[in-house]
Automatic annotation (TrEMBL):
Lineage: Eukaryota, Viridiplantae, Streptophyta, Embryophyta, Tracheophyta
Protein name according to UniProt: Uncharacterized protein
Domain of life: Eukaryota
Amino acid sequence: MELLTDYDVTIQYHPSSNKVRATFIEEIKAKQFEDENLNELKKKTVIGKALETTLDGEGVLSFKGRVCVPRVNDLIQKLLIESHDW
């Protein structure tokens, strides 16, 4: 099983900038728990076993204050392309 700590990746969303479309955030929220690893992390977060992860009021999983991007479809690739096109 891959863990978030296995990667050195940072994706930051800045609401005041238009670098990443707001629709990506909505898509991330909608698909976050289709990712098996993120779903397991959510379960651990709920029972207090994943200390650096949080669930916000909308049920969005974050790791160290950053939204967890699911590995489903081509969402990560689309996000990277979009953020580099501006």
